[in-house]
Write a structure and sequence with these properties.
There is one protein chain. This protein is α/β, with parallel strands linked by helices. Helices cover 35% and strands 21% of the residues. The protein has eleven helices and 14 strands. A ten-stranded mixed β-sheet has the order 3-4-5-6-9-10-11-12-13-14, with helices on both faces. Strand 13, helix 10 and strand 14 form a beta-alpha-beta unit.
Length: 346
């Protein structure tokens, strides 16, 4: 399969056009056009000879939207088909400040979280930087956005896959997404959600970027976390929290802990007290999320009263708490559900 032009940084694009005997300014024309969603054939400002040279060794499209579901609350879920016929998901959520897109970083996932549909079939492969970027470009174009009037305002690396398990491609994606010649996303408008791959949290901190780090915690202690998140056996919660402190100091960004509320697993008063004591004294945020049930397991969601009581205990310990608004429950809302349905039909 040919390398995709969307996987090139701006510097790599400059080097490529010079190597092909063209002036450097052609790089800006090509890079900007690609990030507006144009194909090479649609770039009328590029010499036909250069277009043909590029097409010999590079692909200019990475994916297409093959299915869309629209929720009653306006949330839109997309099924993308990649050039090798693999499929991934993405979600577009509307807020007062604009649109947030949730993108995938892998085809499948190997983290094995017991409550998640994304990893039920294991990891197929990593996405390239261009395939991650392509999800955003496609939707921004669909919304009528361009480089000057970008419709997608925020990015969340929280779809299928573990971003830090695909570190090199994700790091390159962050550079491309931030480039002023493209969609020019501020680091502070990008969030990355991880199960807690400690070594790569340190590596991410050392990149010098200021993206928002979200930790999928989902438990108040190692015993419960190991039971529902097998990947957590590679490190203790204390080691994870130490890495979070390093990230916060290095980037001056607050850490957000995601906590999926699962009935009779991690949602008791005792669980709340244990979590509160573990996180108190730090400028963290805890985001409580009611479980989005999937038929492949027996986990159940909690009542609103349980969630409210859990939040109240955390607040008593001066911990910042938010409760995620449930979006897209009527459209295969859980990560991986739509993809699995498509694969099974195939």
């Amino acid at each position: 399969m040919k390398e995709n032009l969307l996987s090139l940084t701006y510097k790599e694009m400059e080097d490529l056009v010079v190597q092909l005997g063209e002036k450097k300014y052609r790089a800006e024309q090509i890079f900007s056009s690609l990030h507006m969603g144009k194909t090479l054939d649609e770039m009328t400002n590029i010499p036909k000879a250069l277009v043909e040279k590029l097409k010999e060794n590079y692909d200019d499209e990475v994916l297409e939207i093959i299915k869309e579901q629209v929720s009653l609350d306006g949330t839109r879920k997309f099924l993308y088909k990649l050039r090798d016929d693999n499929v991934i998901e993405g979600v577009l959520m509307g807020y007062k400040f604009g649109y947030t897109i949730c993108v995938s970083t892998q085809v499948g996932c190997r983290m094995g979280c017991k409550f998640c549909a994304s990893g039920l079939d294991g990891l197929v492969r990593n996405l390239t930087a261009g395939e991650i970027m392509g999800q955003i470009i496609k939707v921004n174009q669909m919304l009528g956005g361009d480089l000057k009037n970008r419709k997608v305002t925020n990015i969340v690396l929280m779809g299928s896959g573990e971003p830090l398990d695909n570190f090199d491609n994700v790091a390159k994606f962050l550079e491309i997404a931030n480039d002023k010649h493209g969609l020019n996303f501020s680091d502070r408008n990008i969030s990355l959600s991880t199960c807690g791959l400690v070594k790569n949290i340190y590596k991410l901190a050392d990149l010098g970027r200021q993206i928002n780090l979200c930790i999928s915690l989902h438990a108040p202690n190692d015993d419960i976390r190991h039971r529902i998140m097998p990947v957590s056996k590679s490190c203790t919660m204390d080691e994870l929290l130490k890495a979070c402190e390093y990230y916060a100091k290095k980037t001056n960004r607050r850490i957000l802990f995601e906590y999926i509320m699962i009935k009779n697993v991690n949602s008791s008063r005792e669980n709340a007290l244990e979590l509160a004591k573990k996180l108190s004294g730090h400028n963290y945020i805890v985001n409580l999320i009611n479980l989005n049930e999937v038929k492949e397991n027996d986990f159940k969601s909690c009542s609103q009263e349980t969630i409210d009581n859990f939040a109240r205990i955390l607040k008593d310990y001066k911990i910042n708490v938010t409760t995620r608004r449930s979006l897209g429950k009527d459209i295969d809302g859980a990560c991986g559900q739509l993809r699995r349905k498509y694969i099974k039909k195939g």
